[in-house]
Amino acid sequence: MRLLKPLIKYCIYQLGLAGKLDRFLFRFTQFQQKRANELYRKKNPSISLPSDYDLYETYQLRYQQFIEDGVLAASEIREWTKDYLPDPMPVILDWGCGAGRIIRHLPIVYPGAVLYGCDSNEDRIQWNKSHIPGISFTTVNSFIPTPYSDSIFDLVYGISVLTHIDADQQGDWLNELARILKKDGILLISTQGDFYLPDLLPGEKRILAREGIFTKSYPRHGHRMMSTYHNQNHFKKLVSPLFTILDYYPGNANLHKLGGQDLWILKKKT
Within a domain: residue 52? Predict the structure, then answer.
């Protein structure tokens, strides 16, 4: 029974039906959460919320959880990095900011910080620009380079971003993030490690064990239906030429941090 879910998912991908599955799951989730979301919007009419599909694709389609978990994540990023950011007014980039779940709360936990957000989805960037003041939002390609200059950020964080980037592009993106970080700048990143092994079929696990990385492909880069999985030791080797590992929290032992994703806190090497 444990293999049934990944087997069904594999068949759907092989048949080219992943897009239809995505739309079905979205509509089903929208129906499930309809009553709770209507109540939340009625009680909080002043809170701006992105479209239902943007919430669904970038996080979860539950309005209250989107807001409350965003507040929590912003506070946690501050807590996880405070010892490594001596500047009281750091320059911070939310790489893959999506619908603004986290960055909309950063002005509260990082007062005085200079804040940037970027994403490959133009519609989400335009929504963020219209509804989240005081932050510079930029559309970036799903491939390098970004439009940012060298060495401008004290902190770049990407929560569940590498997890949706093809294996072949991971090294290029790590080089790009190192380029735009300042000397001794901090990169906070998450990956899908051992906690997610049950999502893979035996053959996919063998590829992951052999290559150290495995991607379930999808036509749209960065989409939630594209998933990349990392072996811990492989990822350490991948980042070691560019970064020093300051902290590492395996997801299966730290579910309270990122719900099962591995958390890496890295410092740019000089």
Answer: no
Q: What is the CATH number for 181?
A: 3.40.50.150
Question: 161 is written with which tokens?
Answer: 């971003």
Q: How much is the pTM?
A: 0.92
What 3-state DSSP class applies to 183? strand
Give 205-224 pLDDT, tens digit per residue: 999 999 999 998 876 666 67
Nearest to 180 by CA among 116, 244, 109: 116
What is the total count of domains within the chain?
1
Q: How does DSSP assign 107-132, residue by residue?
A: HHHSTT-EEEEEES-HHHHHHHHHHS
Please say whether the beta carbons of 96 and 161 come within 8 A: yes
pLDDT computed for residue 9 by the predictor: 66
Beta-strand runs (E) in the chain: 91-95, 114-119, 136-139, 153-158, 181-191, 213-216, 227-230, 243-249, 262-268
